[in-house]
Amino acid sequence: MMISVADALAQVLAGVEPLNAERVGVANAFGRVLAEDVASRLTQPPRAVSAMDGYAVRAEDVGKVPATLTRIGESAAGNGYDGGISAGQTVRIFTGAPVPDGADAIVIQEDTETDGDKITMTEAPTPGRYIRSAGLDFAEGDVLLARGRRMTARDVSLAAAMNVPWLTVTRKPRIALLSTGDELVLPGEPVGPDQIISSNSIGLGSFIQAMGGEAVNLGIARDDPDDLRRMLDGVRGADMLVTIGGASVGDYDLVKTVLGGEGLDITFSTVAMRPGKPLIFGAIHGKPMLGLPGNPVSAGVTSVLFLRPAIGVMLGLNNDETPRETALLGRDVPANDHRQDYLRSTLGMSPDGELTATPFKKQDSSMLRLFAQSDCLVVRPPNAPPLAAGERVDIVRLDWSNLSV
Ligand code: AMP
Ligand code: MG
Question: Which residue, 30, 141, 205, 291, has fewest beta-carbon neighbours within 10 Å?
Answer without folding.
Answer: 141
